[in-house]
DNA sequence: CTCGTTATATAACAGTTGTTATTATATCAT
DNA sequence: ATGATATAATAACAACTGTTATATAACGAG
């Protein structure tokens, strides 16, 4: 009996992400999304009864995209830890507004970054680190945390346009921090 | 001929900062500031013909407060580099909304943090670093940069409530990064 | 075909914002 | 005292927002 929907939930979420990407999270509202889809505001209100609900799902969608983005590196060629860090930074540079949007979120992935147990895909990486650098589980977690703070710091500055993105500069910093922290740990023993 | 102004520019700026502190930068608008000062919107529009102008001056005021905040440590007792870093982090924890507001600003101090020549008060600190750790000027700048990224990363995560503020944990991380980076530099020679 | 269901359009309401008249009032030079 | 004028209050406009009421049209079951 029902007409088939022209506007799907997914189309709305896509339009929302695109809007944030182009004009920033402040520009997010029902009418603008509708305009992007060339429809009225009704389909949007129909699929998401409250705008806040749409926003929450946009956080989830942006976070999923972010996660996927992070993992696009060559595990044969690159050290996973540094490669993920550099992807994290590149994301902030290339998807500035999405990164800023994500930072506002309560569900922000970085929350999980610190509790490694919540990110199963990182477990093998930490094991490699432990084995290669001969660290304890505790130490490798702490080394990861320190690196993550530097990574997030650079990313955050990039997303707010206070530094330029220079991949070789960034990886230099990351390597310095990472190797330095590991060296410091081993020196303390 | 003129009656003396009841509402001064400074009162407006103070009310604005207090508003951001309490309710976040999104709550900033002419009517709310007026309410805080128990006056109409006119005095605000009188002193700042456009709201954007007021916002710009609030950035400057917040930045000045931030700078002042950073320097409140005991130079006899604490290592300046680490102490300033810890103050930076503490600011993000205690003045969460002000930090988030500042991060939006184009004038954000961190811009200057990377170009040390723009922060004359840091010059003596860098000199001490060079002397004590026996680094070149270039190296000490780079060590400072790495430390700053980690500091800003932690601060940013704190301001967005994704980690807890634990001073001893934070200074542990900072020391680790700082000593690590210096060690790494010297090991490379 | 016809009818009920449902996705959509149109339009409107209410609240909030920046901004701008218009009006009132307090001060001080005269 | 009084009048010129800087400051402020009141009120309103226009733009934008979330949300809802009403009407319309598309689709498929019967």
Account of the 3D structure:
Two copies of one chain form a homodimer. With 189 residues, chain A is an all-alpha fold. The first copy, chain A, is built from ten helices and no strands. Chain A has two domains: 1-49, Arc Repressor Mutant, subunit A; 60-185, Orthogonal Bundle (Tetracycline Repressor, domain 2), CATH 1.10.357. The longest helix of chain A has 23 residues, at 137-159. The mean pLDDT of chain A is 91. The interface between A and B is medium-sized, with 35 and 35 residues. The structure holds a DNA duplex (30 and 30 nucleotides).
Summarize the structure.
2 copies of one chain form a homodimer. Chain A is built from 10 helices and no strands.
Number of domains of chain A: 2
Q: What's the count of strands of chain A? A: 0
Strand content of chain A: under 5%
Which CATH class of the largest domain in chain A? Answer: Mainly Alpha
Largest two-chain interface: A-B, 35 and 35 residues
**How is the quaternary structure best described?**
homodimer
- Under CATH, the topology of the largest domain in chain A can be stated as Tetracycline Repressor, domain 2
Helical content of chain A stands at over 70%
Examine the secondary-structure arrangement and name the CATH architecture of the largest domain in chain A: Orthogonal Bundle
**Shape summary of chain A:** elongated
Distance between the termini of chain A: 73 Å
Mean pLDDT of chain A: 91
Radius of gyration of chain A: 20 Å
Biggest sheet descriptor of chain A: none
Number of discrete helical segments of chain A: 10
Low-confidence stretches of chain A: none
């Amino acid at each position: 009996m029902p007409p088939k929907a022209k506007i799907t939930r997914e189309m709305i979420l896509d339009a929302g992400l695109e809007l944030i990407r182009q004009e920033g999270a402040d520009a997010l509202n029902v009418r603008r999304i509708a305009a992007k889809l060339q429809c009225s505001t009704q389909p949007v209100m129909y699929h998401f009864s409250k705008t806040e609900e749409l926003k929450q799902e946009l956080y989830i969608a942006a976070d999923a995209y972010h996660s996927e983005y992070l993992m696009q590196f060559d595990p044969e060629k690159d050290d996973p830890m540094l490669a993920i860090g550099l992807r994290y930074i590149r994301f902030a540079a290339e998807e500035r507004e999405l990164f800023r949007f994500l930072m506002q979120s309560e569900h922000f992935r970085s929350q999980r970054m610190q509790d490694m147990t919540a990110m199963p895909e990182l477990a093998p990486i930490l094991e490699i680190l432990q084995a290669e650098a001969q660290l304890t589980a505790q130490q490798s977690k702490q080394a990861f945390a320190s690196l993550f703070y530097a990574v997030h710091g650079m990313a955050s500055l990039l997303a707010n346009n206070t530094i330029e993105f220079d991949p070789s500069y960034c990886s230099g910093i990351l390597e310095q921090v990472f190797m330095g922290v590991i060296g410091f740990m081993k020196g303390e023993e």
